[in-house]
Design brief:
39% of the residues lie in helices and 15% in strands. Helix 4 packs across helix 10 and helix 12 packs parallel to helix 15. It is built from 15 helices and twelve strands. The chain folds into two domains: 247 residues, Aspartate Aminotransferase, domain 2, CATH 3.40.640; 125 residues, Alpha-Beta Complex (Aspartate Aminotransferase, domain 1). The protein is α/β, with parallel strands linked by helices. The strands form two sheets. Strands 1-7-6-5-4-2-3 form a seven-stranded mixed sheet, sandwiched between helices. A five-stranded mixed sheet has the order 8-9-12-11-10, covered by helices on one side. The relative contact order is 0.13. Bound molecules: pyridoxal-5'-phosphate (PLP).
Amino acid sequence: MKFHTKNVHFSKKKEDTIHSKVTPIYQTSAFSFKSLQELEAYYEGEGNYLYSRVGNPNTDELGRAVASLEGAEAGVATSSGLSAVLVSILAVAKTGDHVIANDDLYGGTFQLIAKELKEVGIESSFVSFANRETIVEAIKPNTKVIYSESVTNPFLRVEDLEQIVDVAKEYKLVSMIDNTFATPFLCKPLETGIDLVIHSATKYIGGHSDVTAGVVVGSQDLITKVNQKLGNLGANLSPFESWLACRGLKTLSIRMEKQSSNAAKVAEGLVKLTGVKKVFYPSNLSSKGNGAMVTIELDEHQYNIEQFITSLSWIKLVPTLAGVETTVSYPIATSHRALDKETLDALGITRGLIRISIGIEDEQDILDTFTEAISESKN
Ligand SMILES: Cc1ncc(COP(=O)(O)O)c(C=O)c1O
């Protein structure tokens, strides 16, 4: 099946006596057994479900659906994108091990690895992944994981996945890529040889800003380990949120087509506007489009950023992305808030930096609104 077909046909066909078109919500914390024999069969691997923390038809459906779109053997759904990162790393690294990660990761992932994992004895190094030597120099005898994002935030740099796979193979590391911004519609890291792919399904997988969820996909072997951590740590997703994410997922391909095409046109228009110092928009992500995120930098001395945000009329300021509506976020005050001035300067996160998540509206309306807001906010 091609992507658009696969995208809407992940529900199983005719498996119940009541043939609902859409998978129902199994809003139950546990599953009952007719006999002790049936309970025993579950533990022998013959029965399906026991307890929703360790498995539920709706969470399974979400894991399977994303696995199918990413071309993976298996997948699991988690309570959030961040818990997906956590259980993935803990499935591979333990106290005394070391993780090497790209230095321009999503701020929450940076905090998780640099602070929380450090407190349980997992060390980490954050280096630029721009060239191979820098990565290799940071590898230690106890390094177990190499971690990055297929498209980085907020500068939208497209990661060199082949380089990561190459280093991972040579130094026997497990490679992990957060594919949240690109989605499997535009990028399939497993095809390049990446071991685990992670999503904040809160973003494009769900697509409607109404669910917080995560997904991890990869080989059956690795996903079994991730699933064990997930069950033991209680990082499971609820049946209802899994169901919502699956409902949203069905329109991923058409949303990504429209949002990417809108983003390309809006980025082109923004480049021409006076007052926009820089526009960050990838050009080399995929032949199907380059994603729906655009980051701009306004001259903070000539433009009043506060005024710019309030002049955006129907475009909301939100600390998230990927919904069907165009929104903006302000990295220095949200995703990168915890970073010190020196790190912010090194990364180039300034007061004029605005990250735009382009929606499915008419592209001219989006561009006109930015044009007006920029002109209204000139000092
Ligand atoms: C790239 C990326 N990865 C992971 C996360 C964390 O996801 P969640 O908020 O679903 O825990 C985010 C959240 O913004 C993100 O942007």
